[in-house]
Amino acid sequence: xxxxxxxxxxxxxxxxxxxxxxxxxxxxxVTFIRIGSSEKPFSLIVPRVHDETFAHAPAEVLARLAxxxxxxxxxxxxHPQATIDLAVHGPLWDGDLDAGQWEHGMAxxxxxxxxxxxxxxxxxxxxxxxxxxxxxNPLTRxxxxxxxxxxxxxxxxx
Length: 158
Fold this sequence. Notes:
With 158 residues, the protein is α+β, with helices and mostly antiparallel strands. It has three helices and seven strands. The radius of gyration is 16 Å and the shape is globular.
């Protein structure tokens, strides 16, 4: 599975700008991590009935769908604990979506290419093990959450 990371800013509490890292797991989920905050990340999952439809959708499209839903349903303030289904037929957010990664303590994205950063995820062949331990690495937690959506293709009707 391929992951792509974007950065986005929103008005936060008071006059502060809230910075979020938006991690898209291609065709599976979009996770929001608030930079500089102790709040846990939250995710929107592509419903399984739309797996094939969104398997090849660009990461930016999924990010913009998720951001629009999060703004409309006020999830930035709520920070839900459970994963939420992505409203795949919703509007696209048309704000600024930066590619790359935030550097610690910076107000601006780290310099880099204009293309989104792509990370190669763990191989699919690894066996998924449900762990009850809390992961401190958000990407590890995200990958563990999305592994439950893998499908054995040999079980699919031809």
